[in-house]
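Section 5: illustrative case.
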């Protein structure tokens, strides 16, 4: 029988709680739901007022994975949806997760959360810039950290502050709070910095996605600043054999990174880190930290 739980006055049916989702650690769906309930105060600010896309992995990372932007069948009427401009479907809507009941409903679907760099209230007007640093083997997150430090310094020269988080996979993400700016302008600036990084670090960086160019280098993916693109939301679990999280890290951790495992953060690491460091990405929500895009 599917247990019914009440979350802040909303009744939720939570299913298959004993099902193993992350096989290496034996992490169950019930433990995944407990994780999201625990980190709700941290992840919800990153989800609020942003249309969310889901990468669903209900049978774990070795099962079927599918990406969906449309509200899933059976979405409760109390879960907010918002219009999202799409050329192929002018009436398209997406879910917005803005409270704990909505978060737990979505988590019960077993999903990665992905969000754009703009808010539902201002489509295609970015308040964040993002770089996705993706290592091409044999490069690892260690090389990503070197590139991140370079980009941090370059952004600072333009009056912009960067904050780092793990991707939850192999690489590193940089997030930069910006004064609301059209996504096209942010994309152009991010591409320019990626090209500059390749010129400055030619043996380490490529700004192009072609796989032939990527072995041993870090791909500085600037494309996720496009209005139609999304990035893994801070604190989301990823569809991996272990319950890896896309989690904030300090710049000292980036500078000191000497082995890939040092920046692998799992589900059970997050609550202690929040207690120790607080919300490392809090400046993303502070207007005084937002810089003008040149």
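Designed sequence:
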């Amino acid at each position: 029988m599917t247990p019914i739980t009440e979350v802040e006055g909303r009744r939720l049916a939570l299913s298959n709680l004993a099902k193993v989702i992350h096989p290496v650690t034996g992490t169950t769906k019930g433990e995944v739901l407990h994780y999201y309930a625990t980190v709700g105060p941290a992840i919800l600010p990153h989800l609020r007022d942003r249309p969310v896309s889901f990468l669903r992995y209900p049978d774990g990372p070795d099962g079927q994975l599918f990406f969906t932007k449309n509200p899933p069948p059976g979405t409760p009427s109390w879960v907010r949806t918002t219009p999202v401009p799409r050329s192929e479907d002018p009436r398209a809507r997406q879910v917005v997760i803005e409270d704990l009941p909505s978060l737990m409903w979505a988590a019960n679907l077993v999903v990665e959360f992905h969000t754009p760099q703009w808010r539902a209230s201002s489509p295609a007007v970015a308040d964040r810039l993002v770089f996705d640093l993706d290592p091409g083997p044999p490069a690892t997150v260690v090389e990503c950290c070197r590139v991140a430090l370079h980009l941090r310094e370059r952004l600072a020269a333009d009056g912009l502050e960067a904050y780092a988080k793990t991707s939850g996979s192999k690489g590193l993400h940089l997030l930069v709070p910006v004064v609301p700016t059209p996504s096209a302008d942010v994309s152009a600036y991010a591409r320019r910095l990626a090209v500059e990084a390749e010129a400055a670090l030619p043996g380490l960086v490529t700004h192009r996605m072609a796989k032939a160019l990527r072995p041993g280098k870090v791909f500085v993916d600037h494309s996720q600043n496009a209005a139609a693109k999304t990035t893994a939301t801070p604190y989301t679990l990823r569809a991996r054999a272990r319950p890896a999280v896309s989690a904030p890290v300090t710049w000292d951790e980036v500078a000191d990174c000497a082995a890939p495992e040092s920046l692998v953060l799992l589900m059970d690491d997050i609550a202690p880190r929040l207690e120790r460091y607080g919300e490392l990405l809090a400046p993303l929500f502070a207007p005084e930290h937002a810089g003008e895009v040149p």
